[in-house]
Amino acid sequence: MLNIALFGPPGAGKGTQSEILAKEFNLFYISTGDLLRKELAADTRLGREAKEIIAAGGLVSDEIIVQIIEKTITEHPNADGFLFDGFPRTYVQCYIMEGLMLKLNASLDCLISLEVDEEVSVERLLSRGKSSGRLDDNETVIRNRLKEYAEKTLPVLDFYRERGVYRPVDGNRSVEAITDDLRAILREQQAKHLFNVVIFGYPGSGRSTQASALAKSFGLEYIATGAMLDEEIKKGSALGKRVQNMYETGQLVSDEIVVPLIERRLKSARGVRGFIFTGFPRTLVQSYILDGLLQKHGSRISRVVELEVPSLELIERLDKRRSTEHCRPYDSTTTRIVNRLKEHEEKTVMVIDKYKQQHGFIKVNGLGTPEEVFNRLVDALKPGASQV
Asked: Quick one: 355 exposed, middle or buried, by C-beta within 10 A (0-12, 13-18, 19+)?
């Protein structure tokens, strides 16, 4: 979940940028002013409490504001995150935000500050006043608002600067240029939250079928090295011919071939919640390569799952697959099937042992109908699932 606070003085264009970012990144826009007006209009308990305070000439308390924000967050579980505008606005509210995020098992990823020169803000707001007819968009009122913003906001910016999540952006430029910078920051933060899954299992365990179904269910990009290599073979490319020869001689496809294909997929994916891998890594070296690839893109492995299927069941499945359109080169004879299973035992089991020490690792029973195995995998990928 991506949580961003967008700051900027009056005239910085926060509203315009918020609308663009919220739509593109599926973030729910939280403006304390808007939320408060909705509570008042709906005549909720919190709205009535706020109405009494406003009628008496007071300011709505932080206690009411934080309850409204928490209520809004919990009512929108399908959002990929939240974009905060106008909160936190004071030093005390910074601590309220920290506590709120802790309660929700989340954190504020970054505070983005649109830095705008005072004269630019004044010019923009005066121009807006001419077109909108707003009485408060006159120079005296504008400069007072800018002064108040600077005085109240500086402690907030310092708070998040000390935490290392303060990101300034030059807001004096065009809307498009600012959007490009904001988009880059959010994509960088988004990468840190990707849910990346590796599914292991002997040939015949059903990992490809399950990975494809899980990718659709969780909104993940499915990266199957076998499928990518098959595509090269079907195209009849020089690379495909090399791969075909390796298959026929029982060799593992070299890392020099596989790695560029994977990196290309990582770079081209947009708007995904993470990646699910099968067929890579198959060796200890490849496990370090995958860690490095994800690290390069600001991410890491989230969960490792192994489908467990007895050896005799695997041989029976692969023998049956031999006569179907899903037949793989190593399915052609029983000897090749056994050799492929031995190869997995010799090379891939070491990778699994490594991941048991470094990442969340879960074993899942691969016997039963595809639907039964799928349901077990879904449970295994849920937060808090029991790990080895």
From this structure: buried
